[in-house]
Amino acid sequence: MSHTKFLTGRAWNSRIRSQNVTGKEKWIGYLLGPCGALLINSILGGTFLNQYWTDVLKIGGLWGGAFLVVFPLVSKILDAITNFIMGWIINRTKNKQGKARPYILLSAILVPLTGILMYVVPDMAPEWQAVWVLISYNLFFSFAYTIYNMSHSMMVPLSTRNSAQRGLLAVFNQVASVMVTGIIAALIFPMAILPIIGSDKTAWMSVMSIIAIVMLPLMLLEYYYTKERVTAELDKAKTEKVPYLMQIKAVLTDKYMILLLVYCLIYTAGSTLKNSALVYYCNYVLGTYNDGITQMLISVIGGVPMGIGIFGRLPRNSARKMSPLRALSCMPSAVPSAGWCREIWSWSSSASSSRTSADFPAPTSSCPCSPTRSITSSGRRASAATALPCPSIPRSASF
Question: Residue 337: what pLDDT?
Fold first, then answer.
């Protein structure tokens, strides 16, 4: 596929010029920037969306209460399909700005806009409000956030072939997720914002719209302060093309990947049930409706065992050598599985950094995560890159 002519002007170029990962790239592109979309997803698309539907819009009784159970499940099936489609699109994209970065720029507009639409529900009959909810929910999760999440997830493996630098970027990404889901969404928002907005529809729409608009510049920072070095190498090198369906089959027939997928499915299901029930448990079972304290305390108390327990599972040498930044990425319970996977990945990357190109097999695809080789005019292998596959991090599911 030839390069598209979109985003070719200098104004769209990355502000990162170095061939090695820089401080600005780590702190702005992979820590501060991702907080924008993550915060929109955690607050506008998280547990609080359920509370808005039931306590503000009062549509929880539709279909005998089945509407808010059935439609999110059906939407998740659609979301899974659009994830595959978006992966195929990114795989076939050839643009001056890279494979994934153009879609981060696109999602910087779509994610805030569709996030606002989920809350700006007109005053009309409950049945028509349900139609609005159904359409806006799928526009956000199955379209806009899918575009962001798939392209964002590709940025670490596309950033560099240096395993140590890639592992560090993964840690910064994880810290951003912990900051948003484990601190802002789980602690600060229910403690400081919920008691103020209560069940006032206008207040909910105003607060959520402000959050979405303020987060847009952060998403632009992620676009401008990231760089796809691996994509640039693939454009110059001759690589063997493998059909997308064959790549999917290879993933789904690997027993270790199946094990990881099953674990992530169980964890996501449990996490979703916990997050969805927490606000109602605090409000109606404990009788502390939006008091600003109870929900925060339960989140903290529930996170302490996971925060402590995860260090008990760390290899002894790695536990002693973990930096404060890595420790922070493991602490809160908001994303324990993601933190654990990233830590495992960082250790394996460090262990493999001393390997030579001879330790890795010849490439079988043009996937940026797999080893690739450059071809000389005589057809011989000139060099090999020691890139390892990067585990994808599951998006937190909420409905």
Answer: 34
Give the C-alpha separation, 157 to 389, whole Å: 8
Give the count of alpha carbons within 13 A of 212, CB side only: 24
**Model pTM score:** 0.73
CB atoms within 10 A of CB 247: 18
Does residue 206 register a pLDDT over 60?
yes
Q: Where are the beta strands (DSSP E) in the chain?
A: 373-375, 381-384
Burial class (CB in 10 A: 0-12, 13-18, 19+), 13: middle
Q: 191: burial class by Cβ within 10 Å (0-12, 13-18, 19+)?
A: middle
Q: Are 237 and 374 in contact (CB under 8 A)?
A: yes
CA dist 173 and 156 (Å) reads 9
Contact (Cβ atoms closer than 8 angstroms) between residue 221 and residue 33:
yes
Side chain identity at residue 300, one-letter code: V
> Based on the number of CB atoms within 10 Å of its own CB, is 240 exposed (0-12), middle (13-18) or buried (19 or more)?
exposed
Q: Which two tokens stand for residue 269?
A: 């299901």
- Please state, as a whole number, how many other Cβ atoms lie within 10 Å of the Cβ of residue 371: 19
Contact by Cβ (8 Å): 216, 112:
yes
Q: Could you tell me if 397 and 260 are in contact, meaning their C-beta atoms sit under 8 angstroms apart?
A: no
Is the distance from CB of 259 to CB of 267 less than 8 angstroms? no
Q: Distance (Å, rounded) from C-alpha 265 to C-alpha 273?
A: 12
The dihedral over CA atoms of 197, 201, 206, 207, expressed in degrees to the nearest 10, equals 40
Between CA 27 and CA 31 the distance in angstroms is 5
8 A C-beta contact, residue 123 and residue 219: no
Query: What are the pLDDT digits (tens) for 211-224?
Result: 999 999 999 999 99
- Predicted confidence (pLDDT) per residue in 269-295, tens digit: 887 787 778 888 888 888 887 777 887
Secondary structure letter of residue 357 according to DSSP = G
Q: Which amino acid is at 310?
A: I
